[in-house]
Every structure is written in C-alpha cells, then in structure tokens.
C-alpha cells in the first residue's frame, strides 16, 4: 500500500508518516497543495491523506481538481476545520472520509483500512482469495482457514498487494512500489526474499510466479 500524505504541519506530518511506516505502508509526504497534481502524475497511490489548510493550494481545491480529473483514488481528509459546512463540503467534494484533528492514530489507521477495503470491493475486513486469508488489522494470514500466521511488515505489504486483486499479475517494480516510499533504498532482491519467506510460512503454491512478468495469487479456489 502506497500512501501520499499531504500535510504542511511538520510535527503532525512526521507523526503520521512514522506511524504509517510502522504499519508497513510506503509513505510519501508533501507539504504544499500545489505539489499534489505533479506527484500524482509521477506515482500511483492507493490512498491520499489530505489536510485542508495547505500552502500553495487549499486542500479543498486539491480535492476538487482531483475529482474533476475523474480520478477515483481514495481520499481521506485530515483537518482541524470542524464546522458542519466544512465537513459536508469535503464529503460532497468527493472525499471518502473525514478525520478531525486531533485524532487517535488508531482511528486514522482503521479508517484507512476501511476505505482501502471498500475500494478493493471487499465487504469483510479480511482479504481472501478463497485459499489465503489476510487480516489487515492484525497482519496475520491463514491458509484454508488454518491457524493464523504472523507476517513481518513487508511480507504483509507484499501479500496485501497481491490479495487485493487476486488473479492480477504484479511486476517486480509494482511490488517494490507498494513496499518502499521515497528516499528508501530498494534492496535488489527484496521481492524474491519476501516471496520465499511467504512461501515458507504459508505453502509453496500460494504465490505463483509468471515467468518474466511477475507474481500473482489465484483468483478464488
Ligand atoms: Ca494545515
């Protein structure tokens, strides 16, 4: 999961970024509203955390222009503006949800999981393709409803990327994108290492290699 954090307050931004990294999200953080459009052109994200009071371009305008381009990327607004009209404007403007500052990080994370889940089209909190189940709240996986197996942050991030679209083949660079944020050094064989580790924990056939193209999990079985 790769998240774009748009927040001009250094302390809040740092707190959120560190918390998201701890939860195995890849996070890129920008502080200026006018940087959102060029950033979205250069990089694909699973979710945007958007502050409203921003230098460069107000968050409300950022939201409006993203939706005007008909981009359906999930957007969660994080803001101190708490009047009813602000909230309605945000939601009517196409935000998926709203969190008021100050908020508990646990609540922010839960709302992010809910939005990502809805976007993936899953009604239940646990992602599954029929064979493997993955619980984003605990980062535990299980095979054929067997005992839960704990995953490391990166193992979780990789399996999550595959399970959100069972059947889709994800390339090495797409998987790396879901695991690393800006400025994080990409270890050359990390994807192979993680897939090896997941197969050891969950079974050899849970992740299929499509030679020269990438990896996938099966679509329901
Ligand atoms: Ca602000």
Which helices and strands appear, and what pairs or packs with what?
Elements: E1 2-6, H1 10-22, E2 26-30, H2 36-42, E3 47-50, H3 59-68, E4 75-79, H4 84-92, E5 97-100, H5 105-119, E6 127-128, E7 132-135, E8 140-143, E9 149-150, H6 153-163, H7 172-179, H8 190-202, E10 208-210, E11 214-216
Parallel strand pairs: 1-2, 1-3, 3-4, 4-5
Antiparallel strand pairs: 6-7, 7-8, 8-9, 10-11
This protein binds calcium ion (CA).
Instruction: Describe the strand arrangement of the main beta sheet, using strand numbers.
Output: 2-1-3-4-5
Number of strands: 11
SS strand fraction: 15-25%
Relative helix content: 25-40%
Tell the overall outline.
elongated
Please give the radius of gyration in angstroms.
18 Å
Bound molecules: calcium ion
Mean pLDDT: 91
End-to-end CA span? 25 Å
Key descriptive features of the protein:
alpha/beta, 4-stranded antiparallel sheet, 221 residues, binds calcium ion, 11 strands, 5-stranded parallel sheet, single chain
Architecture overview:
It contains 8 helices and 11 strands. It is of the alpha/beta class and about 220 residues long. The radius of gyration is 18 Å and the shape is elongated. Bound molecules: calcium ion. Calcium ion binds near residues 8, 9, 51, 53 and 54.
């Amino acid at each position: 999961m790769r998240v774009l954090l748009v927040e001009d307050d250094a302390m809040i931004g740092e707190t959120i970024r560190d918390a998201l990294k701890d939860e195995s999200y890849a996070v890129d953080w920008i502080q200026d509203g006018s940087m959102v459009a060029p950033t979205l052109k250069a990089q694909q994200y699973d979710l945007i955390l958007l502050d409203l009071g921003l230098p460069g371009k107000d968050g409300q305008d950022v939201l409006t222009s993203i939706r005007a381009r008909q981009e359906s990327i999930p957007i969660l607004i994080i803001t101190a503006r708490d009047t009813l009209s602000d909230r309605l404007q945000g939601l009517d403007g196409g935000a998926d949800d709203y969190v008021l500052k100050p908020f508990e990080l646990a609540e922010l994370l839960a709302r992010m999981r809910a939005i990502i889940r809805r976007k993936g089209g899953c009604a239940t909190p646990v992602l599954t393709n029929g064979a493997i189940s993955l619980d984003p709240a605990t980062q535990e996986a299980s095979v054929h409803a067997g005992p839960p197996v704990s995953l490391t942050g990166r193992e979780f991030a990789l399996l999550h990327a595959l399970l959100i679209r069972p059947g889709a083949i994800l390339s090495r660079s797409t998987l790396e994108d879901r695991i690393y944020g800006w400025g994080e050094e990409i270890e050359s064989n990390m994807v192979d290492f993680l897939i090896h580790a997941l197969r050891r924990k969950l079974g050899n056939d849970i992740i299929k290699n499509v030679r020269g193209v990438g990896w996938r999990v099966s679509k329901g079985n």
